[in-house]
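Protocol step 4 of 6: structure prediction from sequence.
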Amino acid sequence: MNPVLTPFRIQKYLGGLRYPARKDEVLERARQRGADEQVLDALRRLPEDRAFDSPISLSREVGRPPVT
């Protein structure tokens, strides 16, 4: 069973990330810090076309329901 995906859990893998940050930078930092697949999957769903200004803006985007 996977633990609940919380903003805190995601942010623990992004320590030291400089903002604004693009999706590729976010994913690279998470990989470097050993993020599990559940966290990486959530980050892969981030939009390609924007930079995130802060950990809060990133967490908000991860928490949005997927567009279908």
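Step 5 (inspection) to follow. The chain has four helices and two strands.
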